[in-house]
Amino acid sequence: MESIWRSATRFAKTVENQPGYVPPEDFEASLDSVRPADYSDVGQAHALSKAYPDSLRYSEATDWLVYYDGVWYESAPAAQAVAQELTERQLAEAHELLEDAKDQLAATGAAMLLASMSKAKAQAMFNAAQQEAFAAFEDAKTYAAYALKRRESRGITNCLKEARPMLLTTPEQLDADPYLLNTPSGTYDLRHGTMSRHDHDPADLVTKQTSLDPGTDGAHLWQEALEVFFQGDHELIGYVQRIVGLAAIGQVFVEALVIAYGDGRNGKSTFWNTIARVLGTYAGNMSADVLTIGGMRNVKPELAEAKGKRLIISAESEEGVRMSTSVVKQLASTDQIYAEKKYKAPFAFTPSHTLILYTNHLPRVGAMDAGIWRRLIVIPFEAKIEGTSDIKNYADYLYTQAGGAILAWIMEGARLIHAENYHLKAPARVVEASAAYREENNWFAQFLDANCDLDPGLSERAGDLYQTYRAWAMSTSGWARPMVDFNATVEHHGFTRKRTMHGMFVHGLALKNEFDN
């Protein structure tokens, strides 16, 4: 053993005598150093990216991202503060080096020489140790002057500008794991429920966080509320729990617009707003007019806000409005959405959200294709809740008294739907409500019933048929489809259009006689 120790000691001395050897204490200090390799904008940017790799990122779609309390959030001022903090650290480091250099000047006698004669004469008399101490002193002065200069606005701005490619993160890298649910105390894997917690990790690149942690307090209050909202229908409660669980997962497995429908005072707004509040920044709002026809504004900035969200809620469409089926198909889809934030670069993202509309009035749907109707799920809210309770704000009461239990209920819904391979079986009440909604919007069947006789041997002039339709549509809904769309619907329903020497005719129907009942 003694022989091994002597051999190791000799080897250590050999290493220490090698050119370029750095003592351990100096090496550790270099790891903590924030001094740039060169005193340029790019050098300062490299120092920033090296010092704050887990605190600062840049994305063209979102601008600067800063990591704080377990979540990455967008904030250019916060990024500016990080760059300012770097200069504070550099200035402190420079002053420390300056004090160390002064001590060395005193220890080597160089300080006495400098005090007793001119700098030039003193330098001419310096020995090697004094020269080294003086060089360190001058270097520290230069570094201190640099750090002070970097604290000017131009220095901060230029540093952040040059650091962008070094800290670049693509939109696709943000919130990339759909199963991670970030909470104030840690992150969970929704496939494994509330037992899957791990500590926050900047590498997860999550930009969202729930407003509280899962728990059990108040679970009975939430169960009582569910019994009231859904009238004790446990099959419907289980279905809605899975819908909400799907919403917690950041990937679209069911392309749907979920419409929570019912008259006022039935709990739908209380239910969905409480769910959204619990999910924190994973939830967002979208104006109902984005989903309807008639708005003239640019919706791309609002679409951009859906990036990374998992629950998007629209509230209270006006009576009689028509649904924009193209927008709904885009939002309730797995296809990429093209959007842009104001004054930011356009970007594309894959939807990660479940779209909810709660309303007293079902929007009218003009399209009859399966592509839109397979996306529409109507959840009936039929309870009649009387205002006899002493609780003035029930949604706030549920959040404060049972918020953790509500989040645990949501997470259990996610675990269940994952275990069931995302097979969402609608209960009878949802099937019936969705079917009734589709029937109410079958405008062509309603037109035929009111205006036409049907028989394979009948025919009608195409122009007369369209004009009758147009008059009927304007009187019943205030809007009529263009002739090309009407003709396509006619043929879609099996009626043939043929041109004869007397004009274009539609076969299989005829307009009712004005004297018919």
TrEMBL record:
Does the keyword field hold Secreted?
no
Which PROSITE patterns did the record assign?
SF3_HELICASE_1
Specify the SF3 helicase domain's residue ranges: 235-394
SUPFAM superfamilies assigned to the protein according to its UniProt record, in alphabetical order: P-loop containing nucleoside triphosphate hydrolases
Taxonomically, the superkingdom here is Bacteria
Q: Which GO terms describe its molecular function?
A: ATP binding; hydrolase activity
What SMART domains does the database record attribute to this sequence?
Answer: D5_N
* InterPro entries registered for this protein in UniProt: Helicase_put_C_phage/plasmid, Helicase_SF3_DNA-vir, NrS-1_pol-like_helicase, ORF904-like_C, P-loop_NTPase, Phage/plasmid_primase_P4_C
State if Metal-binding is listed as a keyword.
Answer: no
What keywords appear on the UniProt entry? ATP-binding, Hydrolase, Nucleotide-binding
The protein's name in its UniProt record: P4 family phage/plasmid primase-like protein
Identify the species of origin.
Answer: Helcobacillus massiliensis
